[in-house]
Amino acid sequence: MSASLSRPRVGVWLIGARGSVATTVVTGCAAVAAGLHPPTGMVTETPAFTDSGLPALSDLVFGGHDTVDCPLPKRAETLTAGGVLPTGVATAVAAELTAADREIRFGGPTPGDTRSEAGLITAFADDIRDFRHRHELDRAVVVNVASTEPASQGPGSPLPASTLYALAALRAGCPYVNFTPSEGMHHPVAAREARRSGLPYAGRDGKTGQTLLRSVLGPMFAQRALTVRAWSGTNLLGGGDGAALADPAAAAAKNAGKERVLTDTLGTTPQGETHIDDVPALGDWKTAWDHIAFDGFLGTRMILQTTWQGCDSALAAPLVLDLARLTARAHESGLSGPLDALAFYFKDPVGDAPSGLAEQYEALIRFAGRLREGEAGEGAAEREDAADGAAHPAREARGTGDRP
Length: 404
What we know:
Blueprint: E1 10-15, H1 20-33, E2 60-66, H2 72-81, H3 89-92, H4 94-102, E3 104-106, H5 117-134, E4 139-144, H6 161-171, E5 176-178, H7 188-197, E6 200-203, H8 210-223, E7 227-237, H9 239-244, H10 248-266, E8 274-278, E9 285-295, E10 301-311, H11 312-332, E11 337-338, H12 357-373, H13 383-391, H14 393-398
Parallel strand pairs: 1-2, 1-4, 2-3, 4-5, 5-6, 6-11, 7-8
Antiparallel strand pairs: 7-9, 9-10
């Protein structure tokens, strides 16, 4: 997609490309690039990122994989009716939505799919390569915004779909961002290939609401020497994510990141649990409630309660655009491996990064300076190993031509 006559230079390949988040990403990018709306929520559009060499929004071209066939313009109509997208914006950018929809390829695996894991990886990688070739792109970033999946069952079990897509991204020579709690590049098979690839990657699980607030409040309690006795939470959400998280295994994967933030910022794990309830009537909207019991001076017992109500897609979309631009620029600058500085965006970030939001923001701003200077990051993987490892991740992973 381009709002000008210049050739688009950077691709954004979305896994879950016809979902609410992806549709909002494509719609929002077109609307902001055309000057129809301000870039609210996009950190990369703040002064700290001026001259950092990020690709312009008008130079992003979208494609992706999905297993549903609802066209993006139709999906955008549904989101407009639900109050997610402003009235009229989907109509104004209908050409961009249609263009992106033409670039969506069928994903998988689906029930009854007879393709092997190696076959799926090859097919997905070929789709990405074809996308890059046809649009003459300098590079493309693969971003997983699909619904949360249950964790894999351990050695010998089938690879989760998110990991198949992650391996396909490596095979196609593309940086990878996991915006979901799904395993993706965290799976040992993909993690090993990522280390060999020499490509940058980031994730996982975008920090859009409840955990964003926790990453601010946790350090506050720790820094003020207030003892948190219990921290309990409830999430009410609908839409595809609500349905997916009705599966206890998927919800457990989601909650792990929420709880890890508390442990890391408080230095201890407080009592209490976080519950996720599927409420279909809420659609793309969610409510998150936290109940925090803490002790003050002389053991005085006190309570803090917070309520966060928001639109999941509208919270996520600007972060996805930020991450695609930052990761593309990191790749262009020669960075490789986990992008620690992007922890600001995630519940469970890869690499070695602080958990408090203020510290993460400082690291992100320093990263903007590095990108401005075009530095090539410390500890980059050897390119010779990368080329060898990325060539056949399916065979390399398990020593067979049929399963990665």
